[in-house]
Amino acid sequence: MTFRATSRHPSLILDDVRGAQKMLSGVARVTALEGSRHLTELVGAPVHLKCENLQRTGSFKLRGAYVRISGLTPVERAAGVVAASAGNHAQGVALASSLLGVRSTVFMPVGAPLPKVAATQEYGAEVRLHGQVVDETLAAAQRYAEETGAVFIHPFDHPDIIAGQGTVGLEILEQCPEVRTVVVGLGGGGLVAGIAVAVKALRPDIRIVGVQAEGAASYPPSLAAGHPVSLGDPVTMADGIKVGRPGDVPFAVIQELVDEVRTVTEDELSSALLLCLERAKLVVEPAGASPVAALLSDPKAFRGPVVAVLSGGNVDPLLMQRVLRHGMSAAGRYLSLRLRLTDRPGALAALLAALTVADANVLDISHVRTDPRLGLTEVEVDLHLETKGPRHCEEVEEALRAAGYRVIG
């Protein structure tokens, strides 16, 4: 699904991003730009991956956080900073504060993944767990700021944050001067807005495409209304772009400079994460894989050369396991079947032999003998198989039927 932006004057200029780039010299890595042969063949033009998943702290967030905290006055620095985040922003603020000698407190949801909590603490922040959802955590952080005088560091709704994120755009132009389309994941809007400010100032011909998860797409209705609109309950596995309302500052920039906003499904996000892992050998979180998901969903819609920004790689191992399984299922590489067999010795062994001939890998198998729908000598078998793709799934089912098995579901 595609939406077009309308016009509004942006609030940042190229000099802001260039100033941020000087500030970040020696702090943020100039991340690699890697070619993707698979995506290049799919799109029919060169596709490059901007690997912000390999940035310090595992995402682009360090850039904006460092620029924002660098701009504080001595009095503000002495008061410390506070932030709220489930992951990437938390780690960016923690490391930036440590590098600048500023005390930081980070509020995280009670259910935040333990690796992200531990990483935030190791970067030097005091972590406080509060609330079940990010909105509750955010409110707690804002109350803390009011009570203590600590400066609240917003994850995307501030010009300094956007300027810092915009340095990704300057690097893209330096690394791939022939680029014609830049595709970026879109949540609150800080990264897309910053890249758009940098890229459009120097190369207005380049197309900027933002990508949102379908269940957390606040920008399409906001662009249609001409102002930020809040979603009731955003739902997506991509927590890095799971934002219920666009930021006021990035919205103004995106309305002016971003050419298109697309949405992708959870299946497409899963498939994209799997592709990044298998084909590019890159660990990418669902939000970071959203530009790849857009390329997979409509590959001929993008004029090349294309740069897809992999915004982060901080994925919880348990979520990675679920997403990979979901991605394999979406790619037709899982097959679930239910069969009825005669309950006699050797029946299961014969079934497994038939599956071996069909070259299907059995992941899980279970028997049901007590269902009233079954005959006295029948047993029902649930199979979960790993296959090589949709065509192989069909071949497995055909082989089972040819061997005399009745597939009932």
TrEMBL record:
- Cofactor(s) for this UniProt protein: pyridoxal 5'-phosphate
Give GO BP annotations, semicolon-separated.
Answer: isoleucine biosynthetic process
InterPro entries per the record? Answer: ACT-like_dom_sf, ACT_dom, ACT_ThrD-II-like, Ser/Thr_Dehydratase, Ser/Thr_deHydtase_PyrdxlP-BS, Thr_deHydtase_catblc, TrpB-like_PALP, TrpB-like_PALP_sf
Q: Which CDD domains match?
A: ACT_ThrD-II-like, Thr-dehyd
Residue ranges of every copy of the ACT domain listed in the record: 336-409
**Which keywords belong to this entry?**
Allosteric enzyme, Amino-acid biosynthesis, Branched-chain amino acid biosynthesis, Isoleucine biosynthesis, Lyase, Pyridoxal phosphate
Q: Does the keyword Cell cycle apply?
A: no
Q: Does the keyword Amino-acid biosynthesis apply?
A: yes
Cite the GO molecular-function annotations of the record.
threonine deaminase activity
Q: Which is a Pfam family this sequence falls into?
A: PALP
Entry similarity comment: Belongs to the serine/threonine dehydratase family.
Describe the subunit structure: In the native structure, TdcB is in a dimeric form, whereas in the TdcB-AMP complex, it exists in a tetrameric form (dimer of dimers).
Q: What is this protein called?
A: L-threonine dehydratase catabolic TdcB
